[in-house]
Write a structure and sequence with these properties.
The chain is an alpha/beta fold. It contains five helices and eight strands, in the order H-E-E-H-E-E-H-E-H-E-H-E-E. Strands 1, 2, 5, 6, 7 and 8 form a six-stranded mixed beta sheet that branches. A two-stranded antiparallel ribbon has the order 3-4. Helix 5 links the parallel strand 6 and strand 7. The N and C termini lie far apart (51 Å).
Length: 163
């Protein structure tokens, strides 16, 4: 009996980098999101980051969440964990510590960046964002990024909200 093999189909670059992002998210230390990101230039990973507390401070997984009330754009109030640094912020800090320019890079992430992260990405020169999902507080961030020419591509056009 001869087994017929189906031809192997390599993942696209976007699919590949999103798979790497999922592996990175396993290092995240806040159970609310377990998100990560990576920044790529010329199809090469140059830096990555995941949700976690600043070095030397306790992580959510160790000390629990540090919750604050946040007023959302639609006027609703939600709880937000402020113990950790967002994945995008951690990636930009890693690039700064190592002297790596992210100018012109593409960011791959689970959730579209929040307003603060969007401002940092704009300032750092990111040109494209590939997000698996929209973020519950992300419409203002999306408008800002688009207004300066950052291309935003969503894999799923739904909002992923925390429990």
């Amino acid at each position: 009996m001869i087994l017929e093999e189906t031809p192997y189909v390599r993942p696209s670059w976007d699919e590949y980098f999103l798979e790497v992002m999922h592996a990175l998210s396993k290092r995240a230390t806040c159970s609310r999101g377990r998100t990560a990101c990576l920044i790529v230039k010329d199809n090469q990973i140059i830096v990555s980051g995941y949700v976690g507390s600043p070095p030397g401070l306790p992580h959510c997984d160790e000390a629990g969440h540090l919750m604050k009330k946040v007023v959302n754009e639609d006027g609703t109030i939600s709880d937000h964990c402020v113990r950790t640094i967002h994945a995008e912020q951690n990636a930009l800090c890693q690039a700064a510590k190592r002297g790596v320019s992210v100018d012109g890079g593409t960011l791959y992430c689970k959730l579209a960046p929040c307003r603060t992260c969007a401002m940092l990405l704009i300032a750092a020169g990111i040109k494209r964002v590939v997000a698996e999902y929209r973020y519950q507080q992300g419409s203002e961030a999306e408008e800002m990024m688009k207004s300066v020419g950052i291309q935003i591509d969503y894999i799923h056009d739904e909002v992923l909200a925390y429990k």
